[in-house]
Structure formats: C-alpha cells, structure tokens
Amino acid sequence: MMLRIFGVVLTALLVVAMVDSCHGSPAYERLLPDPARVSPEIQTACQLAAKMCSQCHPIDRVIAIDHRFDAGQWEFLVRRMRLMPSSGITSTDSGVILQCLVNRLPRSDAK
Amino acid sequence: MTNIRISTVALTTFVVGLLATPALADGFERNFVGSVQFDYMAVPTTSIAHKLGFDGATTELSLKLAQDFGPHVSSSVKLCVACHGLEVGMAFFDLRVADELNFRVGRFTPGFGEFPLRHDPANHATSDKPLPYDMGRMLHRAEWNEGVLPSPWVDNGLEVNGTHFFGDSAQVDYSAYAVSGPRTASSDAADFDFIQSRSGQTYYVDNNSRPVVGGRFAWSLTFDDLRLSAGASLMTGTYDPDTHLKFRIYGAHAVVRYGNITLRGEFVRRRTEMALGDDPATRFKYGPRSDGTYNPYFVKDGFYTELEAPLVWRIGAVLRWDGLHRVGNVLRTGPSSTLSENAGILRYTAGATIGIRGALRIKLSGEFYDFRDYSNEIAVHLGVAGPF
Q1: Is B70 touching A (CB cutoff 8 A)?
Q2: Does residue B335 have a cis bond before it (omega within 30 degrees)?
Q3: In the predicted model, is pLDDT for residue B334 greater than 60?
Q4: Does the pLDDT value for residue B320 go beyond 70?
Q5: How many CB pairs under 8 A join A and B?
Q6: How far apart are CA B388 and CA B386, in angstroms?
Q7: What's the count of helices (H) and strands (E) in chain A, helices before strands?
Q8: Would you say residue A106 has pLDDT above 70?
Q9: What does residue B288 show for φ and ψ, rounded to 5 degrees?
Q10: Side-chain half-sphere exposure of B141, counting CA atoms within 13 A
C-alpha cells in the first residue's frame, strides 16, 4: 500500500518537474537573476556553470561565497571541482565556468 | 569539561587563524568554506523516541580550509562539530602528477559509492542520510548498529586517484586506497564497533597493523541535457586486533540527470565475519545450520533510490525509498539481540527544500519506517541548512 502511494507521488512529482524543466533552470536564475546586465557570452557561461555546479550541490553553495572570492580563489576552487569524481567538467568547461563566476556581476555588485 | 574546553580552543584558533590570514599573502590561493545544519527530528508515533534513536535537535557544522601550493600540491583541512563533538573530517595533502594520477595522504574519506561525495548536509536535500550510509539518525540505530558504512567514513591512509576525459562527453574516475579500517576492541566481536573509530581513548590509529584496502571506479557520459554515471566500489580487510575477522563491503551506484531532475540509486552490501567463541550455542540467539555448524558471517545490504527535482520558485522536492536487510545470527545479549535472523527495514521519505534568505534553506521531510522486527514508525524532520 505504502509503495503504491509512493509510486503515485513519484509519478506526480516527475510530471510536475518535467513540465517545470521546460521553463528554464532555477539554478541558472539563482546564479544570474538579471541576465540583461551581462553579455550573452556570460549568460551562456552561467548556464553551463548552473548545470554543472548543481549536479552535486545546490547552486547556493556558489552564491554563499561569491562576495568574498576573487578570481584566483575561483580558479583554484573550479579546478578542485573539475577533479571531483564524475564532475563532468572538462578543462574547456572549467574556463567557461570561471568566466561566469568572475564576471557574472558588475564589479560594484560583486564585492 | 576538559574536552569541551580543548574543542573550543581548537575551533576558535582555527577560525581566527583563517580570518587573520590574507588569502594571497604568500602567493598561494586559500579557500575557506563551511556549512551548518540545524535539524529537529520528531517521532510522533512513540512517546519517548530517544529509546529508538537520536530525536530532538542536532546541529552539524563543518569548516573547511583548502590551500593551494602551486599546480601539483594542495592541502585540505576540515573540522566538523556534530553529535560526536569536534572531529577532523579531513587533513590531507594532494600530490598531483596529472589529472589521471593523484596521491592523497593523510586523513580523508576514501572513495566509496556516490552519496559520500555529497555527505555534507548543505549538499543534499534531506536532513538525514540514506540508510546504507546512516550515521546515528535512523530509528533503532543501536539494534542495527548504524547503516552498512556510516558516512562520512573518515580514516587515515593513502589513496591514489584520478580522472580522465574522453572527449567532451565521457569521463572515467578511479581511486585505490589503503586505510586503517573499521575496528573493534577485541577479537571476540560480532560486528564493527564504530565508537572505536572516533574515540581518542583508543587513539586514532590502526588497531591491527593491517590496512584495509579498497577502490572505486566510475564512468560518466553526457549528452546535452542528459547525464549518466555509474560505478562500483569495494573495501575489504580485517577489523579485529588479531586479524581473524574478515569483512568485505561492495556496492554499485547509478545517477541519471535530465535537465534539472536527478535520479540516484545505490546498493551496498557488507559481509562481516563474527567470532563464534568456544560455545556458539550459548553465545548466539539462533541455532546452527542443518549441518550442525554455525554460520560465522552475517550479510547486511542497503539500498536507496532518490528523486530530486526543483518545483517552483525556490522550492525543491525530494522522494527517497531506502532500506536495510540483514541476514545472519545475532548475539544473545546486547541491542542486536532483538533482531531476527532475517531482519529488514523499508523507509519511505517525502521532503521539500525551501530557499528562504540568501543561501539558507529549510529542509522539511516525513519518513515512514516499515520495520520487519519492530512496530512501524513515522519520523518528521524540520531543519535549516546553509553554506557560507
């Protein structure tokens, strides 16, 4: 009985989530709340960053530290993340992700 | 009291040291990150839930410092404060020759399975861990003696690991390690004694001069919005001081991610040898096999499947189905004596995460425990978690 209820809830959740996923990525929206303020290149970079980072942890882990990380610290962190098992982050990806993390906010907002 | 004082001094020194040290003073990068989770677990189906497990409030804090010493050397130190008090969850050097070859030496979590990579409370959606990796939050934890391999399993040793990409879509990872391993105080044991592994009274050292060895292998494939990964893990060795009692843990995991939806599954099995003693008939609760001999092994399996998906605004949902299964004899005395020879738990969890302010999230979940040997129970978790 419990398994049946669980199955129904699971199916409903899958349907809602699939419908929702058609409307964009919440992780991307969190990472870049106002895309109009940055270039299309940074927007694309942040789409990749949102996709890759949120595989293993909520994107909030990135947002929580961005006010105190400079470019060098981001580079160090992204390299460490790239080398995590099953990260899926290639060397090329890590450069693109870094571009997002360093440039996603205008400098006056970044600090 | 002395322990609390030492812990407080160590923690304060760690934090003050971090804050007082400029990131680039010596030309090397240094990152400091952390997370906190406060969780309250209530068990409305029983009057005094503490008899079943650790209900009420728990707080888990982790503080991690990573230091870069150039392209080939880095170090990580992580302090954790939770139910056990202050613990060192990481203290290791990475000596990296290439992406494909890294030597990790020190105190670390050896590569095993998928969940341990996300064990930090700020990295997973539920307040507690899946049953195979449970560390102190499941109901009837004393009777079950935790999950199969409590996470994070932190140990001293050496690990060789690496990763390699084949083009942009395929990746393989491996790790192989030798660590101190699980322990017990005497060779008259019938299971691991997890307190031994985190007790300063018995020292944080190997108890039998024989490292346990293990490894992990995983591959991943990416196709646009679809990502697949799967892997297998193994750990084997002896756990008693006289190296008579063998164990083997092995498992497999798979993760499918499509867009924002993630489906994970993992299976872990541990085969553990028990000391039969001089008179198994008086030592064990259940009788011998048909041939008159006592089986010296018990087998403990654990699994979980978990679906995680964002819903609307900053609300995400998680559904988890997990369980434990234990086949084998139990001692006549002690908490495990109430288990049957074929014991089982199935647990059904529905939960949500709700982003509140900044990176803080509320974690809310309800769990239905379906026990084979005990009455069924419901547990409710309400927590707040966030990284910093």
Answers
A1: no
A2: no
A3: yes
A4: yes
A5: 146
A6: 7
A7: 7, 0
A8: no
A9: -75, 170
A10: 24
Q: What would the pLDDT profile of B34-51 be if each residue is shown by its tens digit? A: 999 999 999 999 999 999
pLDDT band at A111 (very low <50, low <70, confident <90, very high): very low
For residue B70, what are its two tokens? Answer: 């150039």
Helix H or strand E encompassing A77: helix A71-82
Residue A14 has pLDDT above 90, yes or no: no
Are B25 and B61 in contact by the 8 Å Cβ rule? The answer is no
Query: What's the CA gap between A2 and B288, in Å, rounded?
Result: 36
How far is residue B30's CA from residue B23's CA, in Å, rounded to a whole number?
Answer: 5
DSSP code of B317?
A: E
Q: Give the three-class secondary structure for B4.
A: helix
The candidate with the shortest Cα–Cα distance to B98, out of B60, B72, B130, B62, is B72
Tell me the one-letter amino acid at B122: A
Mean pLDDT of chain B: 92
Could you tell me the two tokens for A57? 């942890």
Pick among A60, A67, A68, A69 to test the B interface (most B CBs inside 10 A) = A60
Q: Which residue has the tokens 């090397």?
A: B28
Given the structure tokens 């978790």, which residue do they identify? B381
**Closest-CA residue in chain B for A23?**
B312
Tell me, yes or no, if A24 comes closer than 8 A to chain B by beta carbon.
Answer: no
User: Which amino acid is it at B277?
Assistant: G
Return the biggest CA–CA distance within chain A.
57
CB B330 within 8 A of CB B286: yes
- The token pair at B124 is 């997973």
- What pLDDT score was predicted for residue B74? 96
Contact B175 A85 (CB under 8 A): yes
Q: At what angle do helices A91-103 and A71-82 cross, to 10 degrees?
A: 150
- Note the pLDDT of residue A107: 53
From A17, A70, A85, residue closest to B218, measured CB to CB: A85
* Tokens found for residue B216: 């992990």
φ, ψ of residue B236 to 5 degrees: the values are: -150, 155
Q: What is the pLDDT of residue B117?
A: 94
